[in-house]
Amino acid sequence: MLVRRVLLGLGGLSLAALVFIAGYAAYPLLHGGGLLSLPGSSLPDAAGDAQMAKYWQVMDLLDRDFFGEKPPAQARTDGAIKGMVESFGDPYTFFVEPQARELERDQLAGMFGGVGANLQQTPDGYLLAPLPGQPAAAAGIQEGDLLVAVDATPVDAAMSVDELLALIRGPVGTEVTLRVRRGQEDLSFTITRAEIQTPSIEWRLLESEAGGDPAGGVGYLRQTIFSERSPLEMDAAVAELREQGALRFVWDLRGNPGGLLSAAVAQSDMWLDEGVIVVEERAGGLRKTFEATSGELAAGAPLVLLVDGGSASASEIVAGALHEHGRARLVGQQTYGKGSVQLIHELADQSSLHVTNAQWYTAGGQQISGQGLTPDIVVAEGDDALAVALAALPGVQEANLRNSAP
Amino acid sequence: MNGPVAPHTPNSPNIRDNKPLLVTCLSIFVGVVLLLVGFGLGFGAGSLFATPVSAGSSEGAAGEQLYPKFGVFWEAMDLLYRDFYGDLPPTEEATYGAIKGVLGQLDDPNTSFMTPQEADYFRFSLQGSFEGIGARVDWDQEYDTVRVVEPFENQPAWNAGVRRDDLIIEIDGESVIGTDLTSAVSKIRGPKGSTVALTILRMGEDEALTIEVVRDTIELPTIASEMLEGDIAYVQLNSFNENAGELVRQAVGDALEQNAKGVIFDLRGNPGGLLSQAVEVTNVFVQDADVLIERFADGEEEVYSTEDPAIAKDIPLVVLVNQGSASASEIVAGAIQDNERGQVVGVTTYGKGSVQLPQTLSDGSILRVTIARWYTPADRTIDGTGLEPDISVEISDEQLEAGEDPQLDKALELLAAPE
């Protein structure tokens, strides 16, 4: 039987969803409210709409004749939207049902209101594992407690992770009551939700060989997604690494499916002094150029980007920009090749709609959809890409010489 | 982590949620025949549903029930047409997509919708011969892709090495997982002499196989009959189209005139067709007997019986079935069993116990709705389980390849034995 560990923070399912979301546009994200009432929106006047007449005819026939369980109105509408969206024939334009949407939003925000516990899905149901120092642990939840209800809603093994997470999470400061079974006992805990952060960047100073690396210490940053908080995290991580002695950096974007365009632009800007980062072409032909502003996080510090076939979208924007400006070398494997940008619209029922709204091009005019970026140094699958990256990372002296060359 | 898998499941984090849009009845002859399979089944009930349904009758129950939740649909549609970067689909495509999306929420692969284009293609398919690979396929719900129900012996698919239960996951390099049967079949079919590359998953094989099949003209007559040694008549019916009853009556009548001592009625690989013809065909062999019981969503029930004199009600009879014998074939085999008219030989049948009513809408699209379930005269259901033969005889791929037919041999043996 499959036993899956899922963080309350990042459900395995929601991560999977992000895989193809890679590359949101920043603007309407999370603030879709203003877009809900559209001019000319033909809210349900189905009988008057010739196009949709066929749809209602089919619904009538189904209701009258169908032998079997008829799905509720909500499921029908979700199905109709999915089917309609599929007729656009674009894998990145899709519909996300309300619960999955909640998780997606949390993930892109980089934080959520939660209780701070891991969930383990077993054939008997969901087991809890509280994280030290977090609200669940403080309230008395113990590792191995079987979750039987959240507030008034019973929980069993049949409930999906999405549904369960949607129940447990909520605004910071609100309360949630978890009922658990511990041995023979049924216990109830009321927990105040706190802000649980889901860092997008892990970092550390790499051990240097034999006491003091003459070429300069290496700061290693691994980024898993481009969330709202990513630029802040990178800022803090690089500052801390420099304090610890890092003079050179490896930024690992392997397996990073993307995220917010705004984060990709802001983070690229941190390593560039000037120049075009990315050019976006919207439906209708409107072009928008994002340019770097002066000032760098670690001026001139040598940088290598690690990429692979899972580096998509926002990752490719960063890699394309830093590479074309000669700011970083790319090491690893061919990237995924997703050059489109989606708007995420929140719909009235908390579901959301991803709509491909633009293509992006690198500063040099390269369109990467379907092709991806080819690294300077290609590392065969299975080889130690980090070792190759370190070997490719110029020493500080070397870099300085190069930088000061006339 | 994600990479290449992503584009197959754009709508949902979970492939299971992304149900195929148009899951057709149960089996389609790739390449064509596509008989009225499940989609005819149900004409018999036509009189119950004579009232035409008018378009725009959304003031009806469905409309009222759906209105409160349907606003989100318009909201989504407006946003798409406003913001989408790329070619916009015609609005009727969006409507068809919506209809298919709703049907995808039903837990019933036999309720389906065909756009006018798809419907034309299906009608075309009903004409005699077609060009294709010569295999029958259906949609595998579990793997969400095309499954080979039966490659026809000595036809291109079989000769190239395609086998029963193979899962076709790519056609000419393009993934078909999560799509639907109609579109997959249209990719498999093509002009005689052209080649199609099928990427196949097969139980017991670690890696996908790619098999290239050269398409050919596939002839599949509705009926074939011959007199075997020992004066045993062999009658093979390949579909229950509107002439099926008459054709079987003629073939069996001819055999009787030639003093046949027994009849082998072969329904192997027959995917079904019209309900009325299942009754007609049964009527060739049994008289004054029940054939099936049909039960509708509202609890109504109808019993179908043979009404005409049976021309062959006494002659020893063996019915051959296999896993490709579905719906109308299962009705006939079940009726023969329950009326103790003959012996059923072969392997467990397909297991389709539902009845669909096809309705052509004003623009030429076709909606097929599962309206009933059927039960054998003894009130047995075979839905999902299939009909058990009286005498189970398997046939292996090796035997097929060697041209052996142990099921037919068994039938001959039974009919030769003194009663």
Your description of this structure?
The complex is a heterodimer of chains A (about 400) and B (about 425). By secondary structure, chain A is α+β, with helices and mostly antiparallel strands. Chain A has helices at about 10-20, 50-65, 75-85, 100-110, 135-140, 160-170, 230-245, 260-270, 315-325, 385-390, 395-405; strands at about 5, 95, 110-115, 115-120, 125-130, 145-150, 155, 175-180, 185-190, 195, 200-205, 215-225, 245-250, 275-280, 285-290, 305, 330, 340-345, 350-360, 375-380. Chain A contains eleven helices and 20 strands. In chain A, the strands form four sheets. In chain A, strands 1, 4, 5, 6, 7, 8 and 9 form a seven-stranded antiparallel β-sheet that branches. In chain A, β18 and β19 form a beta hairpin. In chain A, α8 runs parallel beside α9. Chain B has about 425 residues and is of the alpha+beta class. Chain B folds into three domains: about 60-110, no CATH class; about 130-220, Roll (Pdz3 Domain), CATH 2.30.42; about 220-415, Alpha-Beta Complex (2-enoyl-CoA Hydratase, Chain A, domain 1). Chain B is about 30% helix and about 25% strand. In chain B, the strands form four sheets. In chain B, strands 1, 4, 5, 6, 7, 8 and 9 form a seven-stranded antiparallel β-sheet that branches. A six-stranded mixed β-sheet of chain B has the order 11-12-13-16-17-20, sandwiched between helices. In chain B, strands 2, 14, 15, 18 and 19 form a five-stranded antiparallel β-sheet that branches. In chain B, a hairpin with a 2-residue loop joins β6 (about 165-170) and β7 (about 175). The longest helix of chain B is centred in the N-terminal third of the chain and has 23 residues, at about 60-85. At the A-B interface, α1, α2, α3, β2 and β18 of A face α2, α3, β18 and β19 of B.
